[in-house]
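Data availability (excerpt). All sequences and predicted token strings are deposited with the supplementary files. A representative entry, 2-oxo-4-hydroxy-4-carboxy-5-ureidoimidazoline decarboxylase, is shown inline so that the format can be inspected without opening the archive.
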Amino acid sequence: MARTDSPLTLDEINGMSKDKFVASLGGIFEHSPWVAEGTYLLAPFESVNHLHSSMLETARQADREQIEHLLRAHPDLATRLQVSPLSAAEQQGAGLDKLTPEEFLLLKELNQTYTAKFQFPFILAVRGKNKDDIISSISERVNRTLQEEWDRALSEIGIITRFRLNDLIKEDTKEPYGRLTTHVLDLSRGIPAAGLVLQLRRLANGTSELLLEAVTNKDGRLDAPLLDGSRMETGCYELLFMAGDYFRKTGLEEENETVDSAPFFLEQIPIRFNISNPLDHYHVPLLVAPGGYSTYRGS
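Structure token line:
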């Protein structure tokens, strides 16, 4: 991929010849310029998201053998062999150039086991992760099925390539990184639920890690995203809303029960969901009353 002294703009990309387009974007997908070649015919692109989606679609529509070549083009993580400049920078950012001899040996053995089983290397978007995250991830994923890892590898390639496009394209033309937000509405009063306490937890390997606790503002929202940027990671999460405390505070009572003497029917409301693409906006609203609630993925 051709390196530029300054970021490109979307207008510049849309105006490129095929040769220049491939030279500029051919390395976005690891050692696979055919993705850029196939995507060129789909220009012009309305946004970076449109460009990225078009490149992903080109890759996914290829035959299985060509996709397998794409997967195999990725280097082993922490390899001491020469890799592309983009891969080298990404691995250094995750601390893979600073492994202890024991960590290097462990990761090397895990990579060999993984590759022997699936016939392509372990692929992970390492930006925002550290060496412990990476070792933990490969240790878990090496036990999955071929189809699960085929799909996961393509998903990780989607994340890696979006980061690379965001780095390549001028700031004022690219979409923001992903974020997680929420909004709580009190259906019993028809107003935003201000002052409701909630927790965000990450769920993995049977454990629950508290990431933060926050309180909704007067609009029923939070003053900042629950997660954004490098904090957005793939995985399973839980939002836990302290509905009982909120309704006690607002002075509401359930039928035949007093606020002070009995717990509410819905004391706490857990909502579990998955983040599969950290570059997307995940909005998880809660519409709540003392006797029921609903949720959905918003925008």
